[in-house]
Hints:
The structure holds two protein chains of two kinds.
Chain A lengths: L1 H18 L1 H38 L2 E5 L5 H12 L4 E7 L1 H11 L4 H9 L8 E6 L5 H9 L12 E4 L1 H46 L2 H9 L4 H41 L5 H7 L1 H28 L2
Helix pairs in contact in A: 1-2, 1-9, 2-7, 2-9, 2-11, 7-11, 9-10, 9-11
Chain B lengths: L1 E9 L5 E10 L4 E5 L6 H8 L7 E6 L2 E2 L5 H8 L2 E5 L10 H11 L4 H14 L15 H14 L4 E5 L7 H16 L3 E6 L2 H7 L2 E6 L2 E6 L7
Parallel strand pairs in B: 3-8, 3-9, 6-7, 7-8
Antiparallel strand pairs in B: 1-2, 1-4, 4-5, 9-10
Helix pairs in contact in B: 3-4, 3-5, 4-5, 5-6
Amino acid sequence: MFFTNIKRVIKAGFISFWRNGFVSLSSILIMTVTLSVIGSVLFLLATLDASLRDLKSKVDVNVYLSTSALEADILALQKSLKIMPEVKSVEYVTREQALVNFKKRHENDAPTLDALAELSENPLSAVLNIVAKEPGQYETVANFLRSDNALSADKQAIISKINYDDNKTAITVLSKIINSAKKFGLAATVALIIISIIITFNTIRLVIYTSRDEISVMKLVGASNKYIRGPFVISGILYGLVASALTLGTFYPLTYYLGTSTANFFNGINVFHYYVVNFAQIFVIIIGCGIVLGSVSSYLAVRRYLRM
Amino acid sequence: MIFFDNVSKIYSDDFVALSDVTFTVKPKEFVSIVGHSGAGKTTLLKMILAEEKPTSGKIFFEAFDIHSLKKRQMNQLRRRIGTIFQDFRLLPNKTSYENIAFAMEAAGRTDEEIESDVPHVLDLVGLGKKIWSFPHELSGGEKQRVAIARAIVNQPDIIIADEPTGNLDPVNTYDVIQILKKINDLGTTIVLTTHNKGVIDSLGKRVVTMENGKIVRDDKSGKYSL
């Protein structure tokens, strides 16, 4: 009997989904909007994440070493920086490399190159480019560099200049922006998702409100609560499935259209590319949300009319 | 079979729907309850179905106190009661067949039983040809016959009919009452409420007359007298 009942409930759910075509359609449309919001939030988070990562990677601290500094001391400093937990990477640009870079940068600037040629010695100092894991950690790195740890083996200062102080304001502002962008993103996401879930829930409640007489008749002929509720939950799941299919379907051309412009705007992340690569994940999230939203809303909405 | 023990129903605004009603329905009886609108007929029936709770007093279905039953027992009890209403109360998105099948499914009958019983019971009420019609495709009389078919398909012990002829023309009224009589002759208890004098007078069965929530007359083979 158990399986017969399951079969009957599923069948009744499909039939009522099909026969209440207009009502089903309106629920599906509202749910599609909700799922699109959830989907868009996924893309927004991805692009925000990518652009924050990009911004962060652009922040670094450059340590200019005195021209007299010995290679061994510089390498030792690089090594001790590398083992700091805050440091992500340390790039060592030798004096020769710095010269090559300088020349390349000024290849169309004849007077500068001429002036450089006048000098008997390479005037450029070696540089250590330090990237920290978080923008807020540059302070620690800068403090480390100012301390005695950054001296050469025979306790001579080998650092001529750290540009952290010049960058300090920019770095502080940037880390604040990044933090608040994250917080705002999270708050906006939660708010949007809650609002759309409430709207969906109310739509489904309205749909089931129209069936309240039907529910009372079912009760009068002695149907159990589970047996009455089952088909509504199945219809809810179907709304969710169709709405997720619609949502996933519309995202394809939409992200394709927006792909290049987001790639330009957000430095590198192409939403279309992201969609295609992470399709399995997005598919599971959207379908999962659709099913949960549809079934839970129906379940709760019917519950009201079962109290008799 | 059904016993009302000093039942009163008072709504929140001091409106007394029933006051100290005591009466018994015996097995296989055909009881008509008559009275003006607002006399308490429908409230009485709703209490048998546990749609309303009495303010005081108890209602027994055989040995069970209806209002102390658990949900599960309540569902089982409702499967032993067939109901027919003035407004038919069919499931609008189901065909005649499905409306009747639903009541059988709710009672846990098998697919084979449903497939053989539904056409049979629709034939019985003369609707064999409308088996796949939706309620909106049926006339009032036809809808009421589907409702009757639904009420009798589980072979209930009792049928509660709340003004079943209220929305029907005289011909359909006659047919519906004849069907109810036939069901009663086969051994099913029937409790009927009605306004229709002709119906009561032609039945010649027990008549309970209500006024302002009280039973004022109870005649063994009564006539309509209000």
